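Sample A.
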Amino acid sequence: MVTPSGPVVTPSGLVVLTDRTLSVRPLPETVAAAVRGGAEWVLLRERDLPPSRRTALAAALRAVLPPGRLIVAGPDPLGGNAVHLAERDRSPAESGERPALVGRSCHAPAPGAEGGTSHSDVDYVTVSPVYPTTTKPGYGPALTPAGAAAIAGDRRWLALGGIDTADRARACADAGAAGIAVLGAVMRASDPERVAGALSAAFADARARTGVRSGR
């Protein structure tokens, strides 16, 4: 891991979260199809796998993604340089090493001092659940896009949770999200390329309409 020395490219557009237990196809096939449809980033979860299998899976996913577009959940980037941390995970900076890209999950305003961090140590946050989600039934309450934006404040943020229609993707863009993080709608799809295409196009159109550009 290295400390970034220049501007960091942060996730935007459609970000696909993985769950091999839900994927209709082998996970690399689902991810490749989503990328063809317009997914710009992938966040590898699968934290139940042993390290060797998870590292091999990370390599397989990197083979179907543009360079640098795989983010790994947890503190170990598995040979890459991008991680996504749980809300109360310790900052990588505390160990003296920081990957080039660090994200963090966020479900409420800045956590309290007991076991939490201010989130000032990260490049972006995911805010969830924006909508009710079938992947985690009962997880919530749903924040709504406006509620998620209020929690994110001035931090760059991705909307996560229940974003399974074009209308919901557009609503997140209108609320100021830099991207939409999607799991179930893509993993469960018989045609992940079509689903990814519909969601990414709707989000991009709404961002363009509001005059906001994704990117750095």
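Sample B.
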Amino acid sequence: MKRLILALALLAAWPVFAVTPSEVLDNPALEARARDISKGLRCLVCRNENIDESNAELARDLRVLVRERLVAGDTNEEVVDYVVNRYGEYVLLKPTAQGANLILWIAGPAMLLLAGGMGLAYVRRRGRAEDGTEAGLTREEEARLEDILRE
């Protein structure tokens, strides 16, 4: 049991090993800004993992790039804009809701509303439908049925 707890603790701490000591900036304020920016950028190799937690080589290159831009004097927004211009908006973990992304932001709720409307229309139409019971038997059919039952 102790081994399981130790293994889980090491797995939980795994992102700590992503940023190597050689990447860490001497200025704590700049390092904090770099970490904040890195948490909002997607690792292009690992998909839904930020570059601060990823051990991929490309994530390391992006972390170094972010730190280089901060040391050069860029603001947080300028660093993010630089990375987005270089790698595309896919690099953002939280993409903006404008342009082509607006279609993606709207598509989910629109489909839900469309499906709800179609379901409501179906239920209402079924409620108004005529009762599907058949008409009674004709006299010939009743006579034939009586003959069959007598046999």
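B remarks: The chain has six helices and no strands. The mean pLDDT is 82.
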